[in-house]
Specification:
The chain is mainly beta and about 80 residues long. It has one helix at about 70-75; strands at about 5-10, 20-25, 30-35, 40-50, 55-60. A 5-stranded antiparallel beta sheet has the order 1-2-3-4-5, with no helix packed on it. This is FAS1 domain-containing protein.
Length: about 80
């Protein structure tokens, strides 16, 4: 799909916001993260095949920020 550590963005279902997917780790121990509207979630179960694409079960509700802008900047290494 895409390279480890690199972002891949997709337009969300509302056609207004983007979702940014990233794979962290190595081949045997990888984690899929998704960032949507400022909320970063990790995949609990990824790559579930569907008729028209892939499904990923994540651990947070996207679009409902739980951090201030300051905490987001302090905790996200890509924004430092």
């Amino acid at each position: 799909m895409f390279l480890y550590g690199r972002y891949k963005d997709f337009l969300s279902a509302d056609n207004r916001n983007s979702l940014y997917f990233r794979i962290l780790g190595d081949e045997k121990n990888k984690t899929l993260t998704v960032d949507g509207v400022g909320v970063k979630a990790a995949a609990v179960q990824a790559d579930i095949g569907a008729v028209d694409g892939m499904v990923h079960i994540i651990d947070r509700l996207l679009g409902m920020p739980y951090q201030t802008v300051y905490l987001k900047l302090a905790s996200d290494p890509d924004l430092r």
